[in-house]
Amino acid sequence: MLDRYADWGWGNVDRVSRMRRVVCAFAASLLIVVVSGFSGVPGPVGNPDPGHRLLDAIRPVVKAVPGGATITRRTFDEPHWDSCDGVRSTYGWDPATVDVGFTPHGLSDAEVFGHIKTALAAQGWTIDAGTSQDGAWYWSRQVEGRDASIQLLAGDGGSDWDLQANAPPLAHPVTGC
Fold first, then answer.
1. Cβ distance 54 to 170 under 8 Å?
2. CA atoms of 65 and 47, how far apart (whole Å)
3. Listed residue (44, 172, 148) closest to 97, CA to CA
4. Which helix (H) or strand (E) is 140 found in, with range?
5. Which helix (H) or strand (E) segment is 97 a member of?
6. 36 or 170: whose pLDDT is higher?
7. C-alpha to C-alpha distance for 8 and 1, rounded to whole angstroms
């Protein structure tokens, strides 16, 4: 019966050759496990938002949306461990983020912008006049000793506007983005 498998190299294999194959297969498997273990996602480092202070500091930007507008999206995201490009060395914490989408029924772009500008100024945000452009405006402010930012994007023809605030994490920010 073993002669039948001789062409496959099983029939005339002595015990030492079999042992070498087993040892080599085991070593190759071990090498694959070790290498893949070191190339995976690194574990989170530090606490990016102790006591939710960052998210709590930017949460009030939702109140800047004009009255009468319909809020179509509202998210409050704590920092999460991420990498923009999947490279091990760029992993870190994303910023705390508040994102609001809204439709400003019956208000002109100038009225929406004027309302939001006033509301954000009352919350301590400063408009970045040099970086604001037609249809996109930016604000900044210090939150926990870091530069937080807001971006407002105008809707097109009555469609959703987007107001997004970000506060950088207090520990190990993501890099490479």
1. yes
2. 31
3. 148
4. strand 136-143
5. strand 96-103
6. 170
7. 13
Query: What average pLDDT does this structure show over 39-66?
Result: 93
pTM: 0.74
Q: By C-alpha distance, which of 73, 52, 51, 85 is closest to 155? A: 73
d(CA 8, CA 29): 23
Q: CA nearest 139: which of 129, 121, 126?
A: 126
Q: Which helix (H) or strand (E) holds 109?
A: helix 109-122
Give the Cα separation of 86 and 116 in Å (integer).
36
158 or 69, greater pLDDT? 69
* 28 Cβ contact list (under 8 Å, min separation 6): none
Beta pairing class for 146-153 and 136-143: antiparallel
Contact between 65 and 163 under an 8 Å Cβ cutoff? The reply is yes
pLDDT, tens digit, 9 for 90 and up, residues 122-171: 999 999 987 777 789 999 999 999 999 999 999 876 679 999 999 999 99
